[in-house]
Amino acid sequence: VPSQAAGASVFWTKSIGSHTLSASFETREVHGFSDEVGYFSGRPTSVSGPGGSERTNAVFIQDVWAVTKKLSLNLGARVDAWKNFDSHSATRSLTTGAASDTLFADRSETAFSPRVAAIYQINENASVYGAYTRSFRAPTLNELYRGFRVGNIVTHPNENLRAEYANTVEGGVGLMFFERRLSLRGSVFATTVSNPVVSVTLNTTPNLITRRRQNLGETRTRGIELDAEFAIRRDLRFSASYLSADSRVTEFPANPALIGNFLPQIPRKQMTFQLNYRPPTRF
Q1: What's the CA gap between 31 and 194, in Å, rounded?
Q2: CA distance readout (Å), 76 to 61, 70, 121, 199, 237
Q3: Smallest Cα–Cα separation from 85: which of 72, 99, 100, 103?
Q4: Residues 230-258: pLDDT tens digits?
Q5: How far is the first Cα of the chain from the last one, in angstroms, to the nearest whole number?
């Protein structure tokens, strides 16, 4: 699966009174194709090369506003514009020599991602925060143009896929103890994803299951996250975190029976531990 990517970014920041302003511009271009050989009964029968290119430009602005000594606001927005082009799917039979090349129309899309957050410092050892964020995930070249087969399951791409969008609200508290050597953080969150890219079963036979990627329905994840960090010494820190997430299908018109089911490949509970040693030298 050969691919190439190139990009660049420019970042600017400036403090004006109680405001810290920042802005950035990013550009990125990706080219990706699949060089594949199809086999049947252990013998090569076809060669194929689906793929395409995607160019993305993005602008981001942010204002961190110290409203008072205890209250800070974070206001930000990002606009992404991307275009898919030079996309096609070429196939040639090794038995008959017949070839086909499907050209896909160029397409473009934009996404607006705002963020609003606030943190209030109750005292030097306690703070509370809340935030709302809207984000997105553009469909990949793989999802748009590359089909594949695993066993008796064939999954077709979909060149008309749109971006997924997520809306997240979260809130939490931060605490410090033992002369700020121990920090504790706890937060709750809820994320709703609309138009997720899923594989929908189109047809089922005893020998073959045919699926196609589609934007469909809605999912929701609710959870709680806990973090702790303790400075054992100046150069040695121990940290631990716990994440509990309940991720379920909330809308699925193609198969309402799936509503309420857990999402695959998303663990319900996660724990991590880390020991970090940073000696006060150049090493």
Answers
A1: 27
A2: 6, 20, 21, 34, 32
A3: 103
A4: 999 989 999 999 999 999 999 988 789 88
A5: 39
